[in-house]
Specification:
The protein is α/β, with parallel strands linked by helices and about 290 residues long. The chain is built from eleven helices and nine strands. The protein has helices spanning about 20-45, 60-65, 80-90, 95-100, 130-140, 160-175, 190-200, 215-225, 235-240, 245-255, 260-265, and strands at about 50-55, 75-80, 110, 115, 120-125, 145-150, 175-185, 230-235, 270-275.
Length: about 290
């Protein structure tokens, strides 16, 4: 088994302090997304693809591989400045390169893109659907194969009309497809407005916040762009779906002074699952 490398081999080093509620939220998010992907992989017996939009320095590909969860194609998409840095970090880490090669041919790498046996890292602006289409073709994505798109705190930074165009293009071109979208919700209340203001002062305007008013708007963005089903839960609901032993374990790791703050934070993030099941594989039954 390939051991997941230390975070420092892939991510730029950081000493940022993370509060207990942020850590618990991150665990719930990553655990739930991995479990949902595992369900799709088992349902399709591995004959599926994953496209990670705005992937950043995510190690999802290696985490799935550690658990023997393999797919036919795993493609990551982000801006060239991000993919260039990730290419550099992967190139430096021998264990990552060896796991990508997997004995199946050469690894092709440019300054900002990487192509291996079943892993591809490509640079694109996902607001440009034509560019996304071209890059996915270069990454050997087969539009006829069941595909899962993952976006974590990505769409909220994109104008709604660009997001709608992307979601409609995906639903039009992939007959069997799942979209896992994690981002803010309930942004019209005072807590949400403070979040918006704080991010704005840091130079991070939420251009797509219109779709984050509530769980209904999160679902509607998919149902209005050709998707057959869409379900959304806030992260407090997702957290409560975790196995009781998981919750007990992580809550022992670090003391949480104010649970109310955690609950308020979790109520302002959500996970949405949208599906289109042209091949009638049972994708609509994938749930938390």
């Amino acid at each position: 088994m390939i051991r997941r490398p230390p975070r420092s081999t892939l991510f730029p080093y950081t000493t940022l302090f993370r509060s207990p509620e942020i850590i618990r939220g991150y665990y719930a998010r990553t655990k739930c997304i991995k479990d949902l992907l595992s369900k799709v992989i088992h349902l399709t017996r591995g004959r599926c693809q994953i496209v990670n939009l705005g992937a950043g320095y995510d190690t999802l590909y290696w985490r799935l591989k550690d658990e023997q969860l393999s797919v036919e194609n795993f493609t990551e998409v982000d801006f060239p400045s991000v993919t260039a840095r990730k290419c550099y970090c992967v190139k430096k880490a021998k264990v990552l390169l060896e796991s990508l090669a997997n004995g199946d041919g050469d690894i092709r790498m440019s300054s900002s893109e990487l192509h291996a046996a079943n892993y591809h890292l490509v640079s694109a602006d996902i607001r440009n659907v034509t560019e996304v289409q071209q890059k996915l073709k270069e990454a050997e994505i087969d539009f006829a194969v069941p595909t899962v798109f993952v976006a974590e705190c990505v769409l909220v930074y994109i104008d709604v009309h660009h997001t709608d165009a992307l979601l409609m293009w995906i639903s039009d071109n992939f007959p069997s497809v799942v979209f896992l979208n994690y981002e803010q919700v309930n942004m019209n209340d005072r807590f949400g407005q403070v979040m918006i203001e704080n991010l704005l002062t840091r130079g991070c305007p939420l251009a797509g916040v219109e779709a984050c008013r509530d769980l209904d708007t999160q679902r509607s963005r998919f149902l209005n762009t050709g998707w057959e089903t869409a379900r959304a839960l806030n992260m407090m609901q997702v957290y409560n779906y975790l196995p009781a032993e998981d919750i007990a374990r992580i809550e022992k790791l670090e003391f949480l002074d104010e649970r109310e703050l955690m609950e308020q934070l979790f109520l302002h993030y959500c996970l949405c699952i949208a599906t289109k099941d042209g091949h009638q594989l049972g994708l609509s039954k994938i749930s938390f």
